[in-house]
Amino acid sequence: MSYITLTCLIDLDTIINIMSDKIKRLAKNLSDLIPEQEELQGTYDLLVQLMHKQKDYFSHKSPEDVIKLLFYIWSYHKTHSFELGDEMLNKLGFALVFYTEGNQHKDYCDDCGGDGDNQCEHCDGTGSMECDDCDGSGDKPCDDCDGTGEIEDDGEMVTCPDCKGDEVVVCDNCGGDGNVECDYCNYGRQTCDTCDGNGEVETDDLDYNEYFIVTWNKMIKDRCEYTEGDTDITMSEYDFDKLRDRFVVLHFDPDRFAEFAEFVQENEVYCAYYDDNPKMQFTSDMKLKPTQGSVNAYLKR
Description:
About 30% of the residues lie in helices and about 25% in strands. It has about 300 residues and is an alpha+beta fold. Among the domains are: about 25-90, no CATH class; about 95-110 and about 200-300, no CATH class. Strands 1, 2, 11, 12, 13 and 14 form a six-stranded antiparallel β-sheet that branches. The chain has a two-stranded antiparallel sheet with strand order 3-10. α1 (about 5-35) crosses α4 and α4 packs across α5 (about 85-90). The model is unreliable at about 10-15 (pLDDT under 50).
């Protein structure tokens, strides 16, 4: 090995050690700002909150540095040293996993725009219609005099006492208004027939929960690596919940939906993507998510 090559290697090792020492010093300082938590997930959640408040500073850090900070803070809380953090960092694996409970995804109803009702077609949204009894005039021919204005009394024609000779009386159906309340709607709005007033309609897609996790547990790593992008089940939802203290959810998206392949079973966890050293990026709230691999791409395989 040449002197130049040896010098470069020594300098590189020195740089790596310096960078590592800086991360550890920062982790020690942050351990005073972040209260000790029972589980590593709590430490991550508090670290994310802090990073979001100090985004200008932490946005210059790499996602890999944040992962190191997380485990060094946890290590310092538990042991007042960084050996535990280094040990855990050497065992890490990252996975994008998901499961569905089989719920049909609901989307806004196009017919009502998500309102659940539409303008009444019968009254044009006014909530009232022309009175059929008086054709909208507000009065109708007097029944007592048959609209003549007079009645016979002892063989003589006299002014009708009911209409007082006007030949018409106030329409008792509309009270003289000429309009009556529309029988087909409620104040001009009709329940949408398409969505039955819910404002949403079911689609062919299924809702699912998506998790980007980091784990140091060998069993979880092995299962995720073995089933990555495959049709095999990684684990049950029950086991996933039971093992929550063996991994950290770096990013959680509960509002995902897609058309599922036939092999996907309800309440079973599948691994769409696994990597020991993935490329990551920050979300707007400073959480970490992968820049490659997606559930939708997995389902289309």
